[in-house]
Amino acid sequence: MTNNLQIVTTADGSKTIFNPSVGENYHSKHGALQESKHVFLNAGLRYFLEQSGLQSASVLEIGFGTGLNFLLTADYCTEHQIKLDYVGIEAYPLTDKLISNTGYNEYVSAASWQPMLNNYQTALTRPVDLNDYCRLHIAHTPLLDFESAQKFDVVYFDAFAAIYQPEMWGEEAISHTVKFMKPDSVFVTYAITGNLKRMLKGLGLSIQKIPGAPGKREMLRAAYK
Question: Is the pTM of this model over 0.70?
């Protein structure tokens, strides 16, 4: 799954990784950085914090990948002194070298970038405090094998597109994800389809269609009431 991975440059100049075995990039070809900021940081975490008025958040990411979503989130939380407890699920972790070669150090502070690189392998085995505000754990497991007593405030659903990885967007995977959500939590993803909306509504979430990142007209945000 992680053989022959290639670093590629997206339209906004930021890099992502192309996986030939899946036939898909880890981020949007229209801009990896723009997509992560728009869909996950702004529409997900920052929206939750504004709505809740809290100074802390727990985030569950489906598809940790290159760590870009985490880095942007951790950087924001560290700057604004927000306590972040972040769990990323990743069945096929990347190597330290590949993550280092993404060049994401250009977009976040050294205080976020270096601790993640230094503790990446440890975070695959247990939660690690990266600084006074951010804790990271990368669950090295397929989504359906992930279990936790913890519930989360925000879900970043960042699996490969349904055309390439349909099982990640099926009812079993979505319902398994939703069971880790707290009341008044937020679910965000770059995609919006009729099937996904129906599944989330059936699981008790209210759906919002909001403007998408460059290259996508709309994205989905859902609230678990």
Answer: yes
